[in-house]
Amino acid sequence: MLQEKVPAVRDDQSAAVTDLIPEQTPLAQSTGPIGPIVPIVPSTSGPDQNIEHIKVVLHERELWKKFNEAGTEMIITKAGRRMFPSYKVKVSGMNPKTKYILLIDIVPGDDHRYKFCDNKWMVAGKAEPAMPGRLYVHPDSPATGAHWMRQLVSFQKLKLTNNHLDPFGHIILNSMHKYQPRLHIVKADENNAFGSKNTAYCTHVFHETAFISVTSYQNHKITQLKIENNPFAKGFRGSEGEDLRVSRLQGKEYPVISKNMVRQRLISSHGHLVGKLGALTGHPQVLSSYQYETGVSLSNSDSQEPMSSRYQQSREPSLLYHCFKHRDAARHLELGCKRPYLEAPPTVSDEHYFRAASSFDSPILSHPYCTEALGSQEPCMFNSMEAEPGPGPIDAENLSSCNMWASMQPYPRYNVDVPYQTFTSHYSDTTTVAPGVAHPHPPPSVMSQASADFQRGLPGIPSSSCSPSSSVIQGSRDRSALFLKKQSSTYSIQGSASIRYPTHQYQVDLSNSACHWIDN
DNA sequence: TCGGCTACCACTTTTGAACTGC
DNA sequence: AGCAGTTCAAAAGTGGTAGCCG
Predict the structure, then answer these.
(1) Is A155 near strand C, with its CB below 7 A from some atom of it?
(2) Which keywords has UniProt assigned to this entry (predicted)?
(3) How many Å from the CA of A465 to C1' of C4?
């Protein structure tokens, strides 16, 4: 599986470092079920280009492992649901003065649809067409390496949704499908932007963060882990593991146990019997109860083999690390400016929508994905595919088209170029960059460097401006003062679209395919 | 009939404005 | 007047569940 594509990946329980592989390595061959894994490409541009030396440590990895062993499930709702455990990383090895953009995407883990049957996940058929691929850009982006390395980088505000037409910028997923989050670190180039030919970036994949999306929890073990570890679910914590709240709600003096709980406790308490029975009968579904007991719950019914046994086999080392540097001018992004994703995102005050300018054909962010998807999406989701790249008037018609930005390609057989849709909660309005002509290796995002004013707020943040109780960079309360200016002003993208942003402009330079922050 | 999805519920944490004291 | 700390209400985030839908 994955590590087979990347030779000599080392798992050091934190950041893994792969052997360097020549850039000529055919990237298309580095594809796998969770998307292509790209080996580090040696940098040749001096110390400022050493993005391959960046190390990323997954925060609360042990917790992630607990969930992973049980088969992580993530709730997706129409309104969007946060991930738990939340995706937090500790970054090191950055150039303190270089500016980076950190972003996350979530790619399909395979091309199957799953169902939870007999206490394990089974393949239930072919995956549904992939949702429009979206990127979640960390709210602090762009920021200096010093900023990112100072504290934990938290993506806890990332939300997952099953609403195909989600207007809030949440990452769109299909229910009952397996997914793999990926972290991308993009370096701003010498023009105080990225998207140009010198843009470098790297991708980090922590396999313990893979999950199956659900609309309601299937595995009670996951439910219990969430309740035990998520502060917001404290209300569901009962003494000695009993669902006291449920019984309290229903005015009963005895604990009420959910269907899943009954099912799983039954299996758990009688697992030895069931297991023996299964061993005698050879019934795979009965055998699965043993798999549950041993913490192996994800299964791949293709072979009636526990999914995680095969799946996890490919998960060590837990981090696959690959970097890529664009040198070929033909690879760099062709940016075109389009209308905002939404002129006035309903109820979203500070969310901002970015999208990749073109099909990001590198394994990291783009491999266009799923021809089937193209044929089955709502029409409005595909309008943008036909829209002309580059500057153009903003109209309501094209507004809806902004929704269509497909994901990366997890499987080599999909080869339709579909640009990416990137989102960030960092900005208060929307910007859109038109899909350009497909590049062999365009960089991942169009978001670029902030203006000088903006930058002033980033590197020199006094530690006191951060929450003393939390050292997590999350662009939230502890940084509200720092980014106060952003909340009340307007960004404009010259030639096509504008976004609100204080005193700065988000300028897309069509001539050099790069984006720039400029002072307003 | 059944599995999946949605809306709603009660509860908890988080957030930010208002207030107070120095 | 300005700052730091506290208080408190509103907002947001949880899993459970009834009911709807295909």
Answers:
(1) no
(2) DNA-binding, Nucleus, Transcription, Transcription regulation
(3) 13
Residues A271 and A46 sit within 8 Å (Cβ to Cβ): no
Enumerate the H helices of A294-344 as residue ranges. 307-313
Q: Using the CA of A113, give the nucleotide whose C1' is nearest.
A: B4
Q: Cα–Cα distance between A203 and A209 in angstroms, integer? A: 14
| Whether the predicted pLDDT of A186 surpasses 50 | yes
| Segment A161-180, tens digit of pLDDT | 999 888 888 999 999 999 99
Q: What's the sign of the alpha-carbon dihedral A119, A121, A126, A128?
A: positive
Position A449 scores a pLDDT of 31
Whether nucleic acid strand C comes within 7 Å of the CB of A233, the answer is yes
* Pair A217, A260: CB distance under 8 Å: yes
Task: Tell me the CA–C1' distance in angstroms for A104 and B22.
Answer: 46
Q: How many angstroms is C1' of C13 away from CA of A278?
A: 41
The reply to whether A52 Cβ lies less than 7 angstroms from strand C is: no
Q: Which of A188, A47, A52, A178 shows the shortest CA–CA distance to A116?
A: A178
Nucleotides of strand B within 7 Å of the protein's CB atoms? 3-7, 10-16
Kindly state the percentage of chain A with pLDDT values over 90. Answer: 25
The answer to whether A142 and A77 have CB atoms below 8 angstroms apart is no
| Per-residue tokens: A282 | 């050879």
Put residue A293 in one of left, alpha, beta given phi > 0 → left and psi -120 to 50 → alpha.
alpha
**Prediction pTM value:** 0.59
For position A198, what pLDDT does the model report?
64
Scanning A95-178, the segments in alpha helix (DSSP H) are 145-150
The secondary structure element, H or E, covering residue A272 is: helix A271-281
How far from chain centre, in Å, is Cα A148? 18
For strand C, which nucleotides have at least one atom less than 7 Å from a protein CB? 12-18
CA distance A319 to A350: 32
- pLDDT tens sequence across A380-416: 222 233 333 333 322 333 322 222 233 333 433 333 2
Q: Please list, in sequence order, all residues whose beta carbon lies within 8 angstroms of the beta carbon of residue A438, skipping any fewer than 6 positions away.
A: A358, A359, A361, A368, A417
Residue A180 three-state SS = strand
Q: What is the pairing mode between strands A336-338 and A211-214? A: unpaired
